[in-house]
Amino acid sequence: MKITSNLTTKQLKRMHSVLGLAGEDFSYAMEGPAEAMLAAGMTAKSVLDSLRSAAERSLWMSATDFAAALSEDLPDEFKDCKGVLRSLVLKAAERAAQNLLRSVEVTDSLANAVPPLSERCGFPAAMAASARLA
Q1: Cα separation of 23 and 58, whole Å?
Q2: Which range marks the domain in which residue 103 is found?
Q3: What does the pLDDT profile of the chain (134 residues) look like in tens digits?
Q4: What number of other Cβ atoms are within 10 A of residue 54's Cβ?
Q5: Taking the model in full, what pTM does it have?
Q6: Structural domains in the chain (count)
């Protein structure tokens, strides 16, 4: 059974702020696991799907805590929520997951910032040349 919340417009605006802060907390807490998933060879797309799902659960917990402080009863499971509140959580989860992935993903521009061994100078380049790595 899907449940619609009875939150007022003012409460929904506050909920939007709460979800934004909770999304930042989620990104901070999940930075290590996200880096590990990428380092293990998972693609950014598959990591994004996993992070989005985890963010939905995390942000739903924050939403239910905030609603409880307002004496509002929300469903225990996110799948049972519908309406404006559901879309708020989905958008905040997507934003949190994308921001997290953007902060830990090594992009081509970062990878190209380090010159190849053949173009480096100094002791590390000499060591690489002596080991025939350059």
Answers
A1: 8
A2: 3-130
A3: 444 567 788 988 999 999 999 999 999 999 999 999 988 988 888 899 999 999 999 999 999 999 888 888 888 788 788 888 889 999 999 999 999 998 887 766 555 666 665 666 666 666 666 766 54
A4: 19
A5: 0.72
A6: 1
